[in-house]
Design brief:
about 300 residues, alpha+beta, Diaminopimelate Epimerase, Chain A, domain 1, 2 domains, 18 strands, globular
């Protein structure tokens, strides 16, 4: 006998409520940043979401809830690290969009995050789903001298090791990131920081990551992102920081929009990742961040 409609609907809902595991901003299916994805989080409260994120153990897990009356492609999305909720997460957004597109087809999505509305476009390129998010309106501001000194001390960096052409700033495209540019690739490669001290500073200032970069050329950067507020020593691909960095480049006059920048991240931790950042004209316009995502083997368990 065939499955009844009610049984089929129940099975479909249970499948959507499973925790999927994807790696976002991968390079040909390898590397990238793992994210948990729950495509249907209806009925889950934030306590359960936090428990699932802790169980999954990735830097973030995204929870999707379709908004009633908002159209088929409008969703509320929440992000949780193993320790706390995060207002916006770029790599989990890309992972969610790819997972949804693989099941329901490509197209445009509107995600309502705690930081504001984020639009996402998905399309097929070379047989894979390619996703592009557009951030909320960004903002860039100077960093307090005392905070900069404290950050450098926690990182065990000397101010003389910074690139004077890329000044320290706080950049936001959904949450705050301290942007620091190393003068050499060797300085960036040697990451050995005081996790407790940097974590305490970031908690006091509300910084999500410290975005450490090195400029290879005008359009190519390498990045590393300490993420102690999420209980993670280092993030292998940080879409939110990439969007904030795009705003930083525009605000600092380091690129002339429209411009595309490639960020290589995760190489020093054995998880190579590639993030494409499109910097659009207009100080208030959102920054576009693009990439792919690949399912991780054995990718779900019941939530």
């Amino acid at each position: 006998m065939g499955m009844t409609n009610s049984a089929s609907q129940t099975q479909t809902q249970e499948a959507r409520a499973a925790v999927l595991r994807y790696t976002a901003f991968d390079v040909n299916g390898a590397g990238g940043n793992p994210a948990g994805v729950v495509l249907d989080a209806r009925g889950m409260d934030e306590t359960r979401m936090q428990e699932i994120a802790a169980e999954v153990g990735f830097s973030e897990t995204a929870f999707l809830i379709q908004e009633e009356g908002g159209g088929e492609r409008r969703y509320r999305i929440r992000y949780f690290s193993p320790l706390a909720e995060v207002a916006f997460c770029g790599h989990a957004t890309i992972a969610t969009a790819v997972a949804l597109a693989e099941r329901e087809g490509t197209g445009d999505l509107l995600l309502v995050t705690s930081a504001g509305e984020v639009s996402v476009e998905t399309r097929l390129e070379d047989g894979r789903v390619f996703a592009t998010l557009t951030s909320v309106a960004p903002a860039v501001r100077e960093v307090d001298d005392a905070d900069l000194t404290a950050a450098l001390t926690a990182l065990r960096w000397d101010a003389a090791e910074l690139d004077p052409a890329l000044p320290p700033r706080i950049a936001n495209a959904g949450n705050d990131h301290l942007v620091l540019a190393a003068a050499s690739r060797a300085r960036l490669a040697d990451l050995d920081y005081d996790q407790e001290a940097l974590g305490d500073l970031m908690a006091r200032r509300g910084w999500t990551t410290v975005h450490l970069v090195w400029r290879e050329s005008d359009g190519v950067f390498h990045a590393r992102d300490p993420f102690p507020p999420g209980g993670v020593y280092e993030d292998p691909a940080t879409g939110a920081a990439a969007a904030a960095f795009g705003a930083y480049l525009r605000s600092s006059g380091l690129v002339t929009p429209p411009a595309r920048v490639t960020i290589h991240q995760g190489e020093d931790m054995g998880r190579p990742s590639r993030l494409l950042v499109d910097v659009t004209p207009g100080e208030d316009s959102g920054i576009k961040v693009s990439g792919t995502a690949a399912p991780i083997g054995g990718c779900h368990h019941p939530a």
